[in-house]
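Box 4.2: Ligand-aware structure prediction
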Amino acid sequence: MLGSVLNHVLLHQTIMGLEALRQLEKAGDYPDTVIGCFGGGSNFSGISFPFLHRNLTEGKGTRIIAVEPGSCPKLTRSRFMYDFGDTAGLTPLISMYSIGHCIIPLKIHAGELRHHGAGPIMSQLLRVGLIGATSVGQSECFRAGLIFARSEGIIPAPETTHAIAQVVREAARAWEEGKPQTMLFNFSGHGLMDLSAYESFFAGELKDYQVTDEEIMRSIGRSELQPV
Ligand SMILES: Cc1ncc(COP(=O)(O)O)c(C=O)c1O
C-alpha cells in the first residue's frame, strides 16, 4: 500500500531521485545508502522517495538516512505528537515529530535546517522504520564540507555539509569493515553565500550547540499540544 502511495507521490523535488536513479542505471550501479540533510524533509524526500519506492516494491535494501543538526533534533530527540507546522501556531495541528513549535533553535550557520518539526509524511516513514535519522554538530559538518571543497572544487552550503558529514562517517565505516559501499547524497546547495561561516570555522569560532532535554521538554510540554 505504502509502496503504491510513494509511486504516485511525485513531489516537485523527486525529480532528483528519479534522475539519480537513471544516471546510476547508466553507470550500472545502485546505492546501498541514500543520504540527505533535513530541514523539513523536502530535499531529503526528493532524493530518497524513488529509492524507498524500490525498497517497498522490489525488495531492495537501500538504507535511507536523514541528517539533522544536533542543535535542532526533531528526528532524533523529539516526540511524535500533534504540533503546529509554524512557530506562530497558526496552522492546523499536524501529526509530526517535533521538538515543539515554541523552541527557538540556537543559531547555527545551517539556518535552513532549524525547523522545529518534520513534515508529516517523513514523520510517518520514520515512525514505521522505513527511513533512519542521525544528527551531527556543525564543526564536524564544516570539516566534511572542507574535504568536499578540496576534493571536488565546489563549496557546499552549511546545510549540505550535514549530508556530507554522514557520507564521511559511512565511508570511514566501510573502509574499516573492508566493505565497498555505493552512496548517493543530495548536494542541496552551494556555499558561496556562506563564506563567512567557513571563515568562522577556520578561526575556530564555531560552537556545537546542543539543545538540552529540559528545553525540549519545556517546549513540547505546552498544554495545547497533544500526544498522538
Ligand atoms: C541549501 C539547502 N539545503 C537544504 C535545505 C533543507 O530544507 P528541506 O529539508 O526543507 O529540504 C535548504 C532549505 O532551504 C537549503 O537552502
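In the box above, the bound molecule is pyridoxal-5'-phosphate. The longest helix spans residues 158-177.
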